Amino acid sequence: MKVLNICLSVNIDSTINSSSSDIERIYQNVFKKLISFLYEKPYSKMTFSFTGPQLIWLEKNHPEFLQLTHELIHRKQVELIGGGYYAPVFPLLFPVDRSGQIELLTSEIRRLTGKRPRGMNIRSSVWDNSLVPCIKNCGMEYIFLDNSILPPESSFYLPLILNEQGKTVKVIPVFRNLAPSEEKDVSPESYINSLIKQVEKATKNDIYSKKTDERNVFIYISNSNLKKLLDTNWLDEFFEKANSNNSINLSLPYEYIHREKNFVSTYISPGLRDDIARWSLIPYTPTEIKNRRQITVYNFMQTYHRFRALYNRMLYVSLLINQCHGDKARKNAARGALWKAQSGDAFICSPDGIFANNAIRQSAYRSLTEAEKYVRSADKFRESVTSFDYNSDG
Q1: Nearest to 274 by CA among 174, 361, 342, 199
Q2: Going by C-beta distance under 8 Å and a sequence separation of 6 or more, which residues neighbour residue 43?
Q3: Higher-confidence residue: 251 or 385?
């Protein structure tokens, strides 16, 4: 390995029910400082990931942030990646809702920044290979998945490529364990050297050593950690050291994917990131998972009946909307309310074991009730008899 490409990523750690004051505090403590830092340091690069409601909040309360982001995107310092508008758990949705949420966020990003995203984030890395055709049909070229759900035999610090029904999508592994931390008291130079040594050790004399001189690490940084790195000028020194090191290339995912010619063909079993999977077997108790790739979001649903009940209700309303024909206005309004209810905050916990509270669940049920009212008030709507056992009671 001669060159290690480093991509850094950040998003807003908030839920769909977070108050404006909560998001404002995160903005003032982290993103206001970050966008100013990036604007003043043309050699720095960062990847952003926002949900639809977060973008709308930024447009309403801090349009200057989006203006600077727009400029930084054209300066090739920032890449804004897509995903689902309400950050849903994609495997739980019908294909029409999956593509609808992806395209809605894509349109919003293109409207606000002038450029459509080519990559997308997967909520909590909840994965199923059946998502590949939908992702590809929505114009997405690559996705980001936590390295904990990836097969160990595919760990070459290179992008992966998945295939399903003749459709392919590239995967960029996300390495949470490699994130810098000011608390570890490691200098930027030492951190960079340790990254290089770790990747060199893992890839020495592997099957791709003679095919490529480059490897890649995509690192997610939490809001709290990023604040400390900004306040202590650690991030500034990191970018300076990285730019002066011939073995390091600061990159954006789009740049790297279109430059790289070697992709590891693999299959990723259905699963979710390990720090959430550990909450899936015993209610409200973290459990060590020996084979983490066998744990799926459906194990989570079986363990937590409140989430399962909401999921059943969501499926029922989805079926009603699919039966609605003719009244496009009410059908579209119903689907919009349904998508809001599909926010991942209501269906899965955080890595720290923080579960959806009553306010989040009630908000989801309220949106589902609103969607059902729209459908039943549509012209010529007739509920038909179907054979869908959405609550699995036989």
Answers
A1: 174
A2: 239, 240, 243, 250
A3: 251
- β-strand pairing of 167-174 with 160-164: antiparallel
- Decide: residue 307, CB within 10 A, 0-12 exposed, 13-18 middle, 19+ buried: buried
Reported confidence tier of residue 152, pLDDT bands at 50, 70, 90: confident
Please name the helix (run of DSSP H) or strand (run of DSSP E) that holds residue 99, with its range, or none. Answer: helix 95-113
Fold classification of 3-265 is 7-stranded beta/alpha barrel (3.20.110)
Q: Which residue has the tokens 């990131």?
A: 273
pLDDT tens digits along 273-325: 999 999 999 999 998 877 655 799 999 999 999 999 999 999 999 999 988 88
d(CA 116, CA 78): 13
- Residue 288, pLDDT score: 85
Query: What secondary structure letter does DSSP report for 172?
Result: E
Tokens, residue 344:
């991942």
Every domain of the chain and the residues it spans: 3-265, 304-376
